[in-house]
Design a protein that fits this description.
Layout: E1 5-9, H1 14-30, E2 35-41, H2 46-52, E3 56-60, H3 72-94, E4 98-101, H4 105-116, E5 121-125, H5 132-137, E6 143-146, E7 160-162, H6 169-172, H7 177-185, E8 192-197, H8 204-212, H9 214-219, E9 222-227, H10 233-240, E10 247-250, H11 256-262, E11 265-268, H12 272-281, E12 285-287, H13 297-308, E13 311-313, H14 319-331, H15 334-347, H16 352-366
Parallel strand pairs: 1-2, 1-4, 2-3, 4-5, 5-6, 6-7, 8-9, 8-11, 9-10, 11-12, 12-13
Length: 367
C-alpha cells in the first residue's frame, strides 16, 4: 500500500506553525509512513521551526499587503501569480491526497491551487474572527475546523466542525511540570510567579509596561518569568538586574509546559495558540491583544475569554497605564484567580488535534 501523502501549508507566526506541527505529529503517530510536506513563506519563521521538528518544507516567495503605502504592494499581484504557479508545481510533484491550510500567506496560494486541481482541502481556522483569505478559501474547502462558536457568519455552516485548536503535545501532556519548572528556571517554591509572554516574536507594549513596573511587582511579593522576544532581551535584562533572582529574562522559552506549570498568573498576547494553551493548562490570564493583527482578531479572541470571566482584557494602548495594577489586583485575589482558572478549564478542548486528524483521514478515505 502506498503511503498517504499530505501537504500542510501556512505559517508566519508560532500561532500558525505550532498547530501545523501538532497536526503533522498526530498524522505520523497514526501513519508512520505518511509523507508530509510543508509549504511556507520564504523568510518566515516556519522555514526554521518546521525542519527543527523533523519535516521537509518548501518556501514560496509571497507576502501580504503592507498597511502603509509601499511600492511593494504594487508587486503583490505578480508575487501572488508566481506563488500560485510554484504551488501548482509542488502539488503536481508531491501528489497529496489532502491539502491542509493553517493560515498565513503561503496557505492562500497552496489551498487555492489545490482546490482548482480538484484536491480535497481542509482549513484549520484558529481565531474567533476569520481573515479574508480563509473566507475566500472556505468556499471550496470540504471541511473547516474552528475553535470558536458562531463561525457561521464567516463560513458555510454545513462544513464547519468545532474542534478547538491543536496544541503542542508537550503542553497537553504536562506531568510534574511545576517541580521541573522551578528547577529549570531557578525559581523559588511557595512564591507567587508571574509569567509574561508576548508570543514567539515578543510584544513591545507588554515589555514596556513590565519593565516600567518591576519595582512595584517585585515589592508586591512576586517573582517574574519574562519572555521578551527577539530584540528586547538585552534591555529587559538591564532593567531586571537590580532585582536579582526575582526576575528571570528569556528571549524565547523553550519549555513552555514548565513555564505554564510554575505560573500563578499569565500576561500574554491573545493569539489563538496562546489562548488555547491557557485554556488547556487552566491558567488565569491578563490578555493584551496585538492591535494590528489581521482583522483585529486578537481582540476578538481576548473578548471571548473576558466575557466569560476567564481572563482580563487590557487594550494595547492602555498597557502602560493599567497592566501592573491589574496584575497586583489579581495577585491579591486568589478567589478570583481560582474562578478564572475553572472557566478556562471548561473552555479547553484537549482532543482538538485528534478530531482534526480524524477529519483529514475521512477526506483521504472519501477521495
Amino acid at each position: 500500500m502506498q503511503p498517504k501523502r499530505f501537504i500542510i501549508s501556512g505559517g508566519g507566526t508560532g500561532g500558525h506553525i505550532f498547530p501545523a506541527i501538532a497536526i503533522a505529529n498526530e498524522i505520523k503517530r497514526r501513519e508512520p509512513e505518511a509523507d508530509i510536506l510543508f509549504v511556507g513563506a520564504l523568510g518566515k519563521m516556519e522555514m526554521e521551526k518546521v525542519p527543527a521538528a523533523g519535516y521537509r518544507i518548501v518556501g514560496l516567495k509571497i507576502a501580504g499587503i503592507r498597511r502603509s503605502l509601499s511600492l511593494s504592494n504594487l508587486l503583490l499581484p505578480f508575487r501572488l501569480f508566481g506563488a500560485l504557479l510554484k504551488a501548482r508545481n509542488i502539488i503536481k510533484t508531491h501528489k497529496p491526497q489532502v491539502v491542509i491550510g493553517v493560515g498565513g500567506y503561503a496557505s492562500s496560494a497552496v489551498l487555492y491551487a489545490a482546490s482548482q486541481m480538484g484536491i480535497p482541502t481542509l482549513i484549520q481556522e484558529q481565531n474567533s474572527h476569520a481573515g479574508i483569505t480563509n473566507k475566500i478559501l472556505a468556499k471550496r474547502a470540504l471541511k473547516i475546523c474552528v475553535a470558536y462558536e458562531g463561525m457561521e457568519k464567516y463560513f458555510p455552516a454545513q462544513r464547519i466542525l468545532l474542534t478547538g485548536n491543536p496544541v503542542r503535545s508537550e503542553i497537553a501532556g504536562t506531568v510534574d511540570g511545576k517541580r521541573r519548572g522551578l528547577s529549570t528556571f531557578g525559581l523559588k517554591d511557595q512564591c507567587f510567579t508571574l509569567l509574561v509572554v508576548g508570543g514567539s516574536l515578543g510584544a513591545r507594549s507588554i515589555n514596556k509596561a513590565i519593565g516600567e513596573s518591576l519595582s512595584q511587582l517585585v515589592d508586591g511579593g512576586m517573582q517574574i518569568l519574562w519572555q521578551t522576544g527577539k530584540g528586547n532581551a538585552d534591555e529587559a535584562r538591564t532593567q531586571a538586574e537590580p532585582y536579582g533572582d526575582s526576575v528571570k529574562v528569556y528571549e524565547f522559552i523553550q519549555h513552555m509546559d514548565q513555564a505554564y506549570a510554575v505560573a500563578d498568573l499569565v500576561v500574554s498576547r491573545a493569539g489563538a495558540l496562546a489562548v488555547s494553551e491557557l485554556c488547556l493548562v487552566h491558567k488565569p490570564a491578563i490578555l493584551v491583544p496585538f492591535p494590528f493583527a489581521a482583522e483585529d482578531h486578537q481582540t476578538s479572541n481576548a473578548r471571548a475569554l473576558n466575557d466569560k470571566g476567564a481572563a482580563v482584557l487590557i487594550p494595547d494602548s492602555e498597557a502602560s497605564l493599567k497592566l501592573s495594577a491589574a496584575v497586583l489586583e489579581l495577585r491579591n485575589d486568589e478567589q478570583r484567580r481560582n474562578s478564572m482558572a475553572l472557566v478556562m478549564a471548561g473552555l479547553a478542548k484537549p482532543d482538538a488535534t485528534k478530531h482534526i486528524v480524524d477529519e483529514i483521514f475521512k477526506l483521504v478515505d472519501a477521495a
